[in-house]
Design brief:
By secondary structure, the protein is an alpha+beta fold. It folds into 2 domains: 87-167, no CATH class; 178-387, MetI-like (MetI-like fold, Orthogonal Bundle). Helices cover 52% and strands 12% of the residues. The strands form 2 sheets. Strands 1-2-5-6 form a 4-stranded antiparallel sheet. It has a two-stranded antiparallel sheet with strand order 3-4. β5 and β6 (149-158) form a beta hairpin. α4 (176-212) runs antiparallel to α10 and α8 packs antiparallel against α10 (295-332). The chain is elongated. The termini are far apart.
Length: 390
């Protein structure tokens, strides 16, 4: 058998220059080695295609900014009293004689001195002789920006500092719009704190129960079953009545947060446990166990990042549920006590049909609740489609 050497092969040209194999370029930051986009970039690209999700993101950002700088956006002192049940002041671009003007103005509502012939209530009407010019960044009641910086500048309102009621006043003559803006602090703070506590507790118990299993899993799931078996609404009312009426407002709010958080973590825990049970059987988790990785490393490096997408979506959906619950409890008088302001507390004025029929603008706080619930629901729906599009 004749041996053929490569160097004797006439098909090879030894004088041809040799071309080195191209070296693989290092992957760019934020991208995979194969040239694909990272997971966060893919989620953001899919999320931007959701119109409702982007609307929810803008509204949620606006709500958080409004709550953080509530006194700056409130045009009137929310605790100041004026004419009770005053109707909303309509913005006009016309003077009293009908001529057009570029500066917006309102004609304040005053008592006309006449009485209704049926109810004998004093009649009110616009004061055309003393218009109030409106503007942005005007002076008003003193406040502290971020509770630290003293200021008297407000985003919009009357140029001369007089009260303007864009949504009318309540039974004590307090401005509804300003109270709704300032009340967003309490309502959103309660919702965010409750959801933060339930998320941390539910995620921790769910991952621990699903990963370790055994008797610990069995006992934890029985505790979850007991919590989920409670009729929550009667229990909320029963627990909140344990606080005396004379208790300080911060103690009452802390107790309400504790009650809502104690009953809200179980459902998320059950969902995270199910995700953990599925992830614990995946190949890369078993490979990490085979090479001797510790439980902490497996949980925090392999399981938690894959569960986090579900947790984020669950958080955005849980926040509007807590806002609705706080509003309902506040309407019944079990959430926030005066002098604090919340959306639920403002809804107490709508408890009688006669008030709603005579003064329909008293329902304006419902708009704040609707916008907040819609914003977080739209954001959560967009995130859910972006995180798991299939």
């Amino acid at each position: 058998m004749t041996e053929v050497r490569v160097e004797d092969d006439p098909a090879l040209d030894k004088t041809a220059p040799r071309v080195a194999a191209p070296a693989s370029a290092p992957p760019a930051k934020g991208r995979l080695a194969q040239g694909g986009e990272s997971y966060r970039v893919l989620v953001w690209r899919r999320f931007r295609r959701s119109i409702s999700g982007m609307i929810g993101l803008v509204l949620v950002s606006a709500l958080l900014i409004m709550a953080l700088f509530a006194d700056f956006f409130a045009p009137v002192d929310p605790k100041a009293s004026n004419l009770a049940f005053s109707p909303p002041d309509a913005v006009s671009f016309f003077t009293a004689d009908g001529s057009f003007t570029l500066r917006p103005r309102v004609y304040p509502t005053i008592e006309t001195g006449e009485f209704d012939p049926v109810t004998f209530q004093p009649l009110t009407g616009p004061d055309y002789e003393n218009p109030i010019d409106l503007g942005f960044f005007v002076k008003g009641y003193p406040h502290n920006i971020l509770w630290l910086i003293p200021s008297d500048i407000h985003f919009f309102g009357a140029v001369d500092g007089r009260p303007v009621h864009f949504l009318g006043t309540d039974k004590l003559g307090r401005d509804i719009l300003s109270r709704g803006i300032v009340g967003s602090r309490i309502s959103l703070t309660i919702a965010l704190i409750v959801v933060s506590i339930t998320t941390i507790v539910g995620t921790t118990i769910g991952i621990t129960s699903g990963y370790l299993g055994g008797r610990l899993d069995a006992w934890l799931q029985r505790v979850v079953d007991v919590v989920l078996a409670f009729p929550q609404l009667p229990l909320y009312l029963a627990l909140t009545t344990l606080i005396p009426i004379t208790a300080p407002s911060n103690v009452f709010i802390a107790f309400v947060i504790a009650v809502l958080a104690a009953l809200g973590w179980a459902q998320l825990s059950r969902e995270v446990r199910g995700k953990t049970l599925a992830l614990a059987r995946i190949e890369y988790v078993r490979a990490a166990m085979a090479v001797g990785a510790g439980d902490g490393r497996i949980i925090f490096r392999h399981i938690l990042p894959n569960v986090l997408s579900h947790v984020i979506v669950a958080v955005t959906i849980a926040i509007p549920a807590v806002i609705l619950l706080e509003s309902f409890l506040g309407f019944l008088g079990f959430a926030v006590k005066p002098p604090l302001i919340s959306w639920g507390l403002m809804l107490q004025d709508t408890g009688t049909f006669s008030v709603i029929g005579s003064y329909p603008w008293i329902l304006s706080p419902v708009a704040f609740v609707l916008i907040a619930v819609f914003a977080f629901n739209a954001l959560g729906d967009g995130l859910r489609d972006a995180v798991d599009p299939y």
